[in-house]
Amino acid sequence: EMTKEIFTKYCYFVEQQDHHWAFLTCRETMVAAARLYDETEEEADKIIHEMGLVVCKDTFIGNQFLSGLSGGQKRRLSIGLALLAKPLCMFFDEPTSGLDAASAYSIIKSITGMAKRRNIIAVCTIHQPSSELYNTFDQVMVMSAGKVAFQGAADAAADHFESIGCPMPANTNPADFLLNQVNADFSSQKHVDMVLNAWANAPASNKMKAGSTAPLPERPTYNTGIVTQTTALIKRHMKLTIRDPTMYTGRMLMFMFACSFFAVIYVKSRDREQDQIFNKLWLVVWLLSVPSCLGVIVVYAYNIESFSIRREIKNGMIRPAAYLISNLLIQLPLLLIASIFAISVSGYGIGNFEGDNYFKFLFMYFVTLWSFEAMAQTLSLVFANPLLGMLGFLEFWFCNFLFAGLLVSKENIIWPFRIVHYIVPFTWGLESLLHAEFADSEFEGAYLVNSTVNVRGFMCDEGTNDLYCGGRTGKQVLQTLHTNFPIATPKDNYGRNLLIVVIIALIFKVTYFALFYRRTTYSKGPKSISK
């Protein structure tokens, strides 16, 4: 009986689409996989030579944005990765799909040669092979609508169909002839039913018999431990992070330049004057809003990455836990560095933010960005189409603006929409960021007075517009802002807010873990097959 565990230990599935790491070279891909399979670099180099990849071993694999390996070379690399696993049986889903005739023949010759040299069973699904390809097959199974029309030696197919009144014309590609016999679009449903019934009623002597079975050799599900896998994955993905700007390095620069642009626009807010209070508030808002919005890139990047990771997990290369741990260990420090890029030059350089509260501001900023990152990872797996996930992320980002208390107070949000106020990170993160920037500052253009003179405890210089009269101390300013922007408050709720944002991030993260395990471990796994 074929089970998932047996499949992972002894089999390897080569998908129709070659999902590789675009910014690794052919050899780097093989060497990284060799470490995960507990093989040597020498074995990886041997397989590279066997698969005819020596000429391109130092070429990036590439993608639609980076030129790299050809389609045939990527397919041979997929086979090479499979050989590192030392499977007893390999399954290929249309290995010649999308290749020209020469490349298709080369791939099939590689598969048949590999199978004979290494004593591996190779099972391929293939559509319309050339006669040259057909003649390389040992056994053939012809199917229609899930039913078998013929199963046996490739050179015996013509004799069987002739015996049921369907002779194959001379000089005909056997594959084309067989497919025409079981395709109702080219013959008729009546004819297809006749072919299927003829095989179902054929003598047992005409059909393949199950060979003798022997106990499978003992081998572990994974060749390496979780620590080894995690270490190897960290090395591989750090190299990818440095080379591929999509996930982190590109965003770091975008954070710095975009936030610096807003800081320049609001440059006058660096002077703590009454008429700059609103500008300073909006600068803090934009410094958080723009980088958090760029998390939409993460949805796309992780969606594409999930295909490669799923292949590696289902073929026994890595454990799901090893990937999740390595991803978290890379994500947290890099996101902290990205946060430093976002606020240091813009906020504390150009914007003249309160320097004594830098680390307090930075940590809340980092945790809030992490919550968006975790949400983006979750949405990368919710939808198969990354565009839908990206749209969902933008909707979530917009809800942070609308429901956080920046534009509408909590009391004015009707139920059940008020629930959103409590679950968006901006509600808690932005409140503490504003408090960290304003609370310990003093603003020119106002002076303190006794509460008997003015109930607010301050008055502004003569000629100051009442609209801009916010207060002398930072807490007075926050209290004034609270009238129009409920998210601003003089009360320091840093600890509570930090805890809530962390909980929000962890909820998204746990949801991502659950979806990840389901998608890589349970979805569309091999079905149980009994004799």
Explained architecture:
This protein has helices spanning 4-10, 26-36, 41-50, 71-84, 101-118, 131-134, 157-163, 174-181, 189-200, 226-243, 249-265, 277-293, 296-314, 320-350, 358-382, 386-403, 418-423, 425-438, 474-482, 494-522, and strands at residues 11-14, 89-93, 121-125, 139-144, 147-153, 446-448, 458-460. The termini are close together. It contains 20 helices and 7 strands. With 531 residues, the protein is mainly α. Helix 18 packs antiparallel against helix 19 (474-482). It is elongated, with a radius of gyration of 32 Å. Strands 1-2-3 form a 3-stranded parallel β-sheet. Strands 4-5 form a two-stranded antiparallel sheet.
Question: What are the SSEs and their pairings?
Answer:
Blueprint: H1 4-10, E1 11-14, H2 26-36, H3 41-50, H4 71-84, E2 89-93, H5 101-118, E3 121-125, H6 131-134, E4 139-144, E5 147-153, H7 157-163, H8 174-181, H9 189-200, H10 226-243, H11 249-265, H12 277-293, H13 296-314, H14 320-350, H15 358-382, H16 386-403, H17 418-423, H18 425-438, E6 446-448, E7 458-460, H19 474-482, H20 494-522
Parallel strand pairs: 1-2, 2-3
Antiparallel strand pairs: 4-5, 6-7
Helix pairs in contact: 2-3, 2-4, 3-4, 4-5, 10-14, 11-12, 11-14, 12-14, 12-15, 12-18, 13-15, 13-16, 13-20, 14-15, 15-16, 15-18, 15-20, 18-19, 18-20
